[in-house]
Amino acid sequence: DTEVTQTPKHLVMGMTNKKSLKCEQHMGHRAMYWYKQKAKKPPELMFVYSYEKLSINESVPSRFSPECPNSSLLNLHLHALQPEDSALYLCASSQPHRRGGGPPYEQYFGPGTRLTVT
Amino acid sequence: SQQGEEDPQALSIQEGENATMNCSYKTSINNLQWYRQNSGRGLVHLILIRSNEREKHSGRLRVTLDTSKKSSSLLITASRAADTASYFCAQLIQGAQKLVFGQGTRLTINP
Which positions 36-75 of B are in contact with A (Cβ < 8 Å)? Predict the structure, then answer.
């Protein structure tokens, strides 16, 4: 199984709502990622989890709160978002990269959640 | 910014022709990866080339790497309508688990 699943596919939320995006993989990968992608732009890294611990936070506003409850699941909790946060949110997974070197690993991406903040 | 640049930004060709996309990057790399993204969907890994490799093939894909010029190119031969997508190069930042994508090339294959 080389699939990364994301739910929901589409989400419309108001600025006062609280919602969560979910991501799941069963490839045994121990690194999971959240990316944000605006239209006609490349994906931009938001968070990296390695062995269920947050290892990279790319200075993301606190209205985005990631959570990795176990090695297969990754959540992104959303609260008090702004209209400019509307984007495609992509989850990905891979084997974790070793800081001292080691082979590079490809990342497997889910289909994304299209988020619209009204 | 560590993001690389790709050119052209958009490319439209006839089915059966070859498509070439170029990527330039800023920092030293140990590998460069290419991904494809169909409209509004997730990315799919296509090919990875290491810094000690100059050329790599996978089916109809050919990737070259010139580390002296900090550039790479992706060639798709005998293009098909299904190749219509955006193509991104990406570099893994050394010492981190951070994949940084280029701006991408939007490829359209006309039947």
Answer: 40-45, 48, 50
Q: Tokens 């959303």 map to which residue? A: A78
Q: Report how many helices (DSSP H) and strands (DSSP E) chain B contains, helices first.
A: 0, 11
Reported as a single tens digit per residue, the pLDDT across B40-50 is 788 999 999 99
Chain B residue with minimum CA distance to A49: B97
CA–CA gap between residue A89 and residue B40 (Å, rounded):
10
Within a 10 A sphere around the Cβ of A91, how many other Cβ atoms?
28
Q: Could you tell me if B103 lies within 8 Å of chain A, comparing CB atoms? A: yes
B99-101/B85-92 β-pairing: antiparallel
* Beta-bridge partner residues of A23: A6, A74
pLDDT in tens, A1-54: 669 999 999 999 999 999 999 999 999 999 999 999 999 999 999 999 999 999
Q: Which residues touch B105 (CB under 8 Å, ≥6 apart)?
A: B6, B7, B8, B9, B10, B11, B21, B86, B87, B88
